[in-house]
């Protein structure tokens, strides 16, 4: 390089990553096996201009300080690790491979697939490949962590009031006509007033963003001419992905969060700590593998040249190592403290609780999260399954966590499809899944209730397709889950048949009503309120196109469904009995029970009724008086008829001085809002496959 050669000072072992102090940049990185760690500096064209050995080591943290005269904010860098290359022992150091800082706050450039990324010789993994990979790897960038948040504060929405809306940053605004073209599909697009207005009017409290940390497309996906759209293939956990930015991803992510917070909306970030994009032993050497493979990844004890694959992607991050736990805790703190995030949804979360003996609710990472002053009260959501031994852990996360409840999804879909026997299971799910979560002080808010998510059919496709149609993924239709509990109602896909179209609309209303009236925390998939379709594809992970993007013309085309969802959310917000902190018990307090389960004949369900395989209709009577003495609202009665025949439902006597009022009926084209007083009406006729909500009101 031209000019004076930089000299690194000792610096400090904390914080991890590259930390700009105003006088220079401190670099700190973990490796227990390195012989030498070189900091590589690059010019703005990506050309390497210096290799500087980190001069100090504290424990297994290597560190050094670069004075400001040699590089400050905007400096591009990476690492090279000198150390053992012994795959049979689990060690894969190779100084020919440029490595991404595990704690990099921003990346510059994109990864290009090239054989130089491989750490070993093709066909002979025992021999390191000496080809320099620097030209093909993104460079890390030093950032200034300062940002002007102004007077905007976090919304701090209580769990019981939370309504989650899962969305993809790019797909949500890519086609939005009111978002400026340069902001569509970007962080700043999600910050646009027109987008926030829709979320606000819908009544959403919390947006759950699919992965925003830097990720890459898998090699096999690129070879097919496709791209990883979802983002569950990370290379840098701290760095917001630059593809969603106009210029500066860090500043623009914060700007988005500030705008959402100003509108009272929380930001929950989907994070992928269970694996990385380095894949199995044939994958690229990009970061953790080159720093300290045996510390960062779970390796089979009988063959440490391989990888345990509990994520189904080639490798599994090792959370029984303290350095990994420390890095992840630092990362979560950064997203909360610096980036403004309010919570996290952890992809394949059982990996976080695994050690050599298996999964444990008392795993060290869970204990560290509970005790951390920054993260202790952050919203934590688990996807409670992975593909390892004992990988299905629904209901087995610690107190304070909430969990994606796929049993709610499957039971609700099956109930409205007409499957049997389901009555008791459906009631349990609607009441908050106490069979799964009533232990160790957990609450109904431990269950995240949903009928559709990014992974699977959309709401509209659940009622329009019997089978997955994933041909566009070029995997011979073998990808995606085959068991969808969906029903096309007579025709696969689009139809002009008015009776089928009407029934599908009714079923979408039934599924929305069940989700938004159930105890627990409801979650909607973005676009479901406007009947978005993926044309039967239930695994759009590689579809970065209009199959995945939101079509905003659907808002007007399906205004009635949007309106129904909005009024359901507003109604839920207004009735404390639908947002309980304790489980329904059927206990009597005063004149009424907190819940009664009713037969269409008007009596409480008996054991024989619960076990009747033909039963597909029940009423749920929730007594307002037992929930809050101060409430002005009456008892609520929700009647579900999943039968394909009409029913007559004998109404229970309303409280003295009141009459039952119908608030909505999903059998109607415009089911709400509004009230219909049922004075002196003892029996309510129910249409097939319908939900009716009633409330006792003063006459």
Describe this structure in words.
By secondary structure, this protein is an alpha+beta fold. Among the domains are: 17-141, Immunoglobulins (Immunoglobulin-like, Sandwich), CATH 2.60.40; 159-272, Glycosidases (TIM Barrel, Alpha-Beta Barrel), CATH 3.20.20.80; 583-698, Golgi alpha-mannosidase II (Immunoglobulin-like). Helices cover 20% and strands 22% of the residues. The chain has 16 helices and 35 strands. Strands 14-15-18-19-22-23-24-25 form an 8-stranded parallel beta barrel. A 6-stranded antiparallel sheet has the order 28-29-30-35-32-33, with helices on one face. Strands 4-3-7-13-10 form a 5-stranded antiparallel sheet, with no helix packed on it. Strand 5 (56-58) and strand 6 (61-67) form a beta hairpin. Helix 13 runs parallel beside helix 15. The protein is elongated. Mean pLDDT is 95; it is low at 626-630.
At a glance:
20% of the residues lie in helices and 22% in strands.
Q: Which features does this protein show?
A:
single chain; alpha+beta; Immunoglobulin-like; TIM Barrel; 35 strands; elongated
Level of helix content? 10-25%
What's the rounded overall pLDDT mean?
A: 95
Low-confidence stretches: 626-630
Number of strands: 35
Number of helices: 16
- According to CATH, the fold-level topology of the domain at 17-141 is Immunoglobulin-like
Estimate the strand proportion: 15-25%
The largest sheet has its strands arranged as: 14-15-18-19-22-23-24-25
């Amino acid at each position: 390089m031209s000019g004076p050669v930089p000299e690194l000072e000792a610096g400090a072992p904390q914080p991890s990553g590259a930390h700009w102090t105003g006088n220079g940049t401190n670099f700190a990185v973990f490796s227990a096996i390195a012989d030498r760690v070189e900091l590589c500096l690059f010019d703005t064209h990506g050309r390497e201009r210096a290799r500087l050995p980190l001069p100090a080591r504290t424990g297994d943290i290597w560190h050094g300080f670069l004075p400001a005269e040699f590089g400050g904010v905007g400096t591009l860098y990476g690492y090279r690790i000198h150390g053992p290359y012994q795959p049979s022992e689990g060690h894969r150091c190779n100084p020919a491979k440029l490595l991404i800082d595990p704690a990099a706050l921003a990346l510059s450039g994109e990864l290009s697939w090239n054989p130089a990324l491989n750490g070993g010789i093709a066909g002979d993994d025992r021999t390191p490949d000496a080809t320099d990979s620097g030209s093909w790897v993104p460079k890390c960038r030093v950032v200034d962590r300062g940002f002007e948040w102004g007077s905007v504060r976090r919304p701090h929405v209580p769990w019981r009031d939370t309504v989650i809306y899962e969305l993809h940053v790019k797909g949500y605004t890519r086609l939005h006509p009111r978002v400026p073209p340069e902001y569509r599909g970007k962080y700043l697009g999600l910050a646009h007033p027109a987008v926030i207005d829709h979320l606000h009017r819908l009544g959403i409290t919390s947006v759950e963003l699919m992965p925003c940390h830097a990720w890459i497309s898998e090699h096999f996906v690129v070879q097919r001419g496709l791209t990883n759209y979802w983002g569950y293939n990370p290379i840098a956990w701290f760095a917001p992905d630059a593809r969603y930015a106009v210029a500066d991803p860090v500043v623009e992510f914060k700007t988005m969060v500030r705008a959402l917070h100003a509108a009272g909306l929380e930001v929950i970030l989907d994070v992928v700590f269970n694996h990385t994009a380095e894949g199995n032993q044939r994958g690229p050497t990009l970061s953790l593998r080159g720093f300290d493979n045996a510390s960062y990844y779970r390796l089979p004890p009988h063959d440490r040249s391989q990888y345990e694959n509990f994520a189904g992607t080639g490798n599994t991050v090792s959370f029984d190592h303290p350095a990994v736990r420390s890095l992840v805790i630092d990362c979560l703190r950064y997203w909360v403290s610096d980036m403004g995030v309010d919570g996290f949804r952890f992809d394949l979360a059982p990996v976080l609780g695994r050690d050599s003996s298996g999964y444990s609710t008392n795993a060290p990472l869970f204990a560290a999260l509970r005790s951390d002053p920054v993260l202790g009260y952050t919203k934590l959501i688990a996807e409670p399954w992975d593909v390892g031994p004992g990988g299905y852990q629904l209901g087995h996360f610690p107190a304070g966590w909430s969990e994606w409840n796929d049993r709610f999804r499957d039971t609700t879909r099956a109930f409205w499809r007409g499957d049997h026997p389901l009555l008791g299971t459906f009631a349990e799910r609607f009441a908050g899944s106490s069979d799964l979560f009533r232990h160790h002080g957990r609450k109904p808010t431990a269950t995240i209730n949903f009928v559709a998510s990014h992974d699977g059919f959309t709401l509209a496709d659940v009622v329009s397709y019997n089978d997955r149609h994933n041909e566009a993924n070029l995997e011979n239709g073998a990808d995606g889950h085959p068991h969808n509990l969906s029903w096309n109602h007579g025709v696969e896909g689009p139809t002009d048949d008015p009776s089928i179209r009407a029934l599908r609309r009714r079923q979408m209303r039934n599924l929305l009503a069940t989700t938004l009236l159930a105890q627990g925390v409801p979650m909607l998939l973005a676009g479901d309120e406007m009947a978005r379709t993926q044309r039967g594809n239930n695994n759009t992970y590689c579809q970065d196109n209009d199959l995945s993007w939101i079509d905003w013309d659907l808002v007007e085309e399906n205004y009635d469904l949007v309106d129904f969802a909005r009024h359901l959310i507003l109604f839920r917000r207004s009735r404390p009995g639908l947002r309980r902190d304790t489980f329904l018990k059927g206990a009597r307090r005063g004149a009424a029970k907190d819940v009664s389960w009713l037969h269409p004949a008007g009596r409480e369900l008996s054991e024989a009724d619960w076990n009747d395989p033909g039963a597909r209709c029940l009423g749920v009577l929730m007594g307002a008086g037992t929930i809050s003495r101060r409430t002005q609202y009456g008892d609520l009665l929700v009647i579900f008829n999943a039968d394909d025949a009409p029913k007559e439902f004998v109404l229970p006597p309303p409280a003295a001085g009141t009459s039952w009022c119908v608030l909505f009926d999903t059998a109607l084209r415009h089911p709400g809002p509004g009230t219909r007083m049922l004075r002196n009406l003892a029996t309510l006729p129910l249409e097939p496959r319908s939900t009716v909500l009633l409330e006792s009101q003063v006459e």
